[in-house]
Design goal:
The chain is built from 4 helices and 17 strands. It is of the alpha+beta class and 290 residues long. It has 3 domains: 37 residues; 96 residues, Roll (Chitinase A, domain 3); 135 residues, no CATH class. The two termini are 63 Å apart.
Length: 290
């Protein structure tokens, strides 16, 4: 038979164990509540302010945008789209902060983050029809072989718009599209007569190019036709040029080669944003929930 002293010790031990369990339960509950209210464990919902790091890719895997400097600076591991530019140094790159469900952010991007927890990484694919809207009127057809008049008359306003300069008689200008010399023959009232001047035997030029950035434009061959009244231009584009060539239009805006039909001798040129009308993939990591 156990003594009263032993029973008292057992009772005291059980009471201490119960007290310890209660304390542990309270501590765990407090930590759980803290984590829930601070966003450490709860899932993101619409209306939450979130911060995310992301890598945006086109269907072919090229990166068109990112919030991560190491990705932006690494072209070997992360090949870039034609329109990609590094925004600045490392201090410029920060997680993207926004309110889930708010306007100004792609709906598919925002919806894809709903349900994520801090530290979670998720791949979000946005179909072409649900991404950035493509303005169909900004798709034009380029003839791979085209004829350009040697001389033509244009209004002064059209000249100034095209050449970004005021016409002066007998002055030489550079054609912003074809890259060859253009001479103003005369200015008469509201009109300008110009001469497209290339060597007699023909020459190569870089159409839609830039004098300061060789990544713009593509090669063309230019020769006089049999009449001598026109210049025949052959654009050096083929099927591999699609999504691989970009240029600068006469007004300084970027254009992109969307497709090339060698059989029909045409190319589709996109004057809209490169990402417009395309499937987009985002690799997103949830940094915080506000």
């Amino acid at each position: 038979m156990r003594s009263r002293s032993t029973l008292s010790q057992d009772r005291d031990g059980k009471n201490a164990l119960i007290a310890l369990i209660i304390v542990l339960v309270l501590v765990v509950s407090s930590i759980g509540a803290f984590l829930f209210f601070t966003g450490e464990s709860r899932a993101a919902q619409k209306g939450d302010t979130v911060k995310v790091d992301y890598i945006g890719k086109l269907a072919d895997g090229r990166v068109f945008d990112t919030s991560i400097y190491s990705v932006a600076a690494d072209n070997a591991t992360y090949p870039k789209s034609l329109s990609f530019t590094v925004r600045g140094n490392e201090t410029v790159y920060k997680p993207y902060e926004f309110v889930l469900g708010s306007q100004g952010t792609l709906a598919g991007f925002s919806d894809g983050i709903v349900g994520m927890k801090k530290g979670e990484t998720r791949t979000i694919v946005i179909p072409a029809g649900e991404g950035y809207t493509l303005n169909e009127s900004k798709l034009t057809t380029l003839q791979l072989t085209e004829s350009v008049p040697v001389q033509r008359t244009m209004s002064i306003s059209d000249f100034e718009d095209y050449f970004s300069a005021t016409p002066t008689g007998f002055m030489l200008y550079t054609d912003p599209v074809y890259g060859w010399n253009v001479q103003v023959l005369f200015v008469d009232g509201e009109n300008v007569r110009i001469l497209n001047d290339i060597p007699a035997g023909g020459a190569e030029y870089r159409a839609y190019g830039s004098s300061s950035d060789p990544s713009y434009g593509w090669q063309i061959n230019a020769t006089y036709d049999s009449t001598g009244d026109n210049i025949t231009v052959h654009h050096q584009l083929d099927a591999s040029s699609a999504f691989d060539k970009k240029g600068l239009d006469y007004n300084g805006s970027e254009i992109y080669v969307e497709s090339v039909d060698e059989t029909n001798g045409t190319a589709v040129i996109n004057h809209d944003r490169e990402v417009a009308g395309k499937e987009l993939t985002f690799i997103v990591t949830l940094v915080s929930i506000g």
